[in-house]
Amino acid sequence: MRAQAIVPTAVFLASVLMCGCGGGNSGTIFGGGGESPPAAPTISTTAAQNGAVIVTLSGTAGVVINYTVDGSTPTPASPQYLAPFLVASNLAVKAIAVGGAPVLMTSAVTSQSFSPNIPSGMLVWSDEFTNTSGAPAQPDPTVWTYDTGTDCCGNNELEDYCAWGSSTSPCSTTSPSEFVGTDGYLHIEAQQPSPGFYTSARLKTQGLFSFQYGRLEVRAQVPEAQGFWPAAWLLGNNIQNVNWPACGEQDVLERINAALSPDWNEGSVHGTGFTGGTGLGTQYNFPSGQTAGGQFHTYGMIWSPGSVQYYIDAASNVYATYTPSSLTPLNDGAVWPFDAGQSNFIILNLAIGGTWPKSPDSSTPFPSEMLVDYVRIYTN
Fold first, then answer.
1. What is the rounded distance in angstroms from the CA atom of residue 6 to the CA atom of residue 160?
2. What structural domains and CATH numbers belong to the chain?
3. How many helices (DSSP H) and strands (DSSP E) are in the chain?
4. In what order do the strands lie in the sheet with 249-254?
5. Angstrom distance (rounded) from CA 59 to CA 37
6. What is the DSSP letter of 85?
């Protein structure tokens, strides 16, 4: 989504403060007084699909974990571990713990190699939104959490985002803004509980699941009316430390307002020096007779080293390709953020109003739903 103004929730200053004084090669970052370095982090895994695993790094209380997946030795300047991440290719995870008081020190390196040898095009992770309970169900709490509140994330949106189970007015447990239906779809519902008040939902995998590189697909049907802003997109885990847009943003599904002829979707990327009107976005026009609303479409992204591509309905139908060279015509301050080593988390939301779509009007139907059939990740 455009022009996000997300406030970081945590800031770690070790890489800024690192001076190396008195440390030599002992692992001490600054200070020095014979203190013991923290224990090395541990690496654990849970199975994903077709040989892929989800990696979790753990350390003792109070430490920060830095890690690499490119074979290099991690340092306090390496990506900070902030969420479990998918491993679906042959690589080595290396990690250190950074902590200690009053002297900040680094641990020994923990390393684990992975050789899943997964062929290209294999499904390695998904949420199929299966529900056999016979009643609307909570989205998987091991995968999805929520942004909440009024204008939680910039853009001058009008809705209150409601988490599952929230009864804080205007949210309601009897009329949830998100649920997995017995039809096998995730429902994200825009409601107007009273004149001038709107509710909806913004689900995210932040802190629970993330990935770097692969082919992402979101099969969805979106509502189309004045003031609706449905989206499926990604942000870097490192938003907690570097804020937006330095963390990078990848917009896979994004459109606003009523259906047009031809109807459309926009795929875009944002980073430092290329946001909003100076961003990189490409509009895809659906073939005659197709719309984003009333029909399911597959919205896809192929994320590879040095490349982000978008497609609709088939991986062969690529309509936008962005690379670091795409930044050349923009400005000298533009920085490509998608190969910095961090994994990204997924966001699904239905915004109401805001800077881009403007407000709903008398033609806007409430309630209206964004339906998501599945979210899947394949190997490139």
1. 16
2. 14-114 (2.60.40), 123-378 (2.60.120.200)
3. 2, 26
4. 145-147, 202-204, 344-352, 228-236, 249-254, 264-270, 280-285
5. 12
6. E
367, two tokens: 């309630």
Place 33 in a pLDDT band, splitting at 50, 70 and 90: low
Query: Residue 28's pLDDT band (boundaries 50, 70, 90)?
Result: very low
Report pLDDT digits (tens) over 55-77. Answer: 999 999 999 999 999 999 999 99
Distance CA 229, CA 353 (A): 7
How far is residue 216's CA from residue 346's CA, in Å, rounded to a whole number?
A: 10
Q: Is the entire prediction scored with pTM above 0.85?
A: yes
Give the tokens for residue 173.
Answer: 């447990």
Structure tokens at 348: 């699904």
Residues β-bridged to residue 159: 198
CA angle 142, 45, 129 (to 5 degrees): 30
Per the listing, tokens 């825009």 go with 190
Cα(248)–Cα(196) distance, integer angstroms: 33
What pairing do the DSSP bridges indicate for beta strands 197-200 and 159-161? parallel
Parallel/antiparallel/unpaired status of strands 149-150 and 159-161: antiparallel
- Nearest-10 Cα torsion for 152, 157, 160, 161: -60
Known catalytic residues? 249, 254
What lies within 8 Å, CB to CB, of 343 at 6+ separation is: 83, 85, 86, 210, 211, 212, 236, 237
In which residue are the tokens 């394949």 written? 378
